[in-house]
Write a structure and sequence with these properties.
CATH class of the largest domain: Alpha Beta
CATH architecture of the largest domain: 3-Layer(aba) Sandwich
Number of strands: 8
Largest sheet: 4 strands, parallel
Distance between the termini: 37 Å
CATH topology of the largest domain: Rossmann fold
Strand order of the largest sheet: 2-1-3-4
Helix content: 40-55%
Order of helices and strands: EHEHHEHHEHEHEHHEHEHH
Oligomer: single chain
Strand content: 15-25%
Structural class: alpha/beta
Radius of gyration: 17 Å
Number of domains: 2
Number of helices: 12
Amino acid sequence: MPTLPDIDYGSRLRAGLLVPSGNSVAEPEIRAMLPRQVSMLVTRLALRGSSRPELMRMLDRLEAASGLLADAEVDVIVFHCTAVSTFAPELAGGIRERIQSASGIRCFTTADAILAGLTRLNARRVSLLTPYIDEVHAREIAFLEASGFQVAGGANLGINTNSEMAGLSSAAILDWARDAIDPRADACLISCTAIKSAPVIAELERVSGIPVLTSNQSMAWHLMRSNGIDGDVVDYGRLFSDPAVRSAEPVAAAR
């Protein structure tokens, strides 16, 4: 019998992701954090810019895209766009309801994952760093404050498109974040799924002395922990490595 290549097709979990069409960063970063036994099946929704109409248009084909992932019989669907899921406190819940109604599959959003991560870290005072234009950054501040967190300082870069965000190097993000982070905060949130922030997490935690969350890291952590998957994930921050936050309540499959 010949020895065949050992490919794991999602023996522990098949996750369906809905990501912005212009995002070239989320998939490589998330794949680097997930165990081999978790597969990631991705469908895109149109989003290139950051204006209010563009962000809302990302939801136009939400049901159709969710149905496509349901065809692949994924175990969970993730709506993975920070700017849209934090647009308003009630919007994330509406997105979940629409996905579940269209697919019959349980789901969560990037906003849900970020709130879960901040809660597990017992962070109440958050330093928020984003690449966003002013109005998107302001909406995220309002979202966090409406969710019970205090935003302590932070900064934004005024970037409009996913392609421009992806053009930022990790080294440039680290230099910017190191100067912009407020060390009086309980945690730093580097928001946005489309910037190369994963490589800076551990170093920024070292120099700042506080936990650092990113959108892709928070999503990968919440995906694993809410499905009862506990594995060693190194280099991507205290959210994964701190024993106090290694577990979350598993969410039962609802297919």
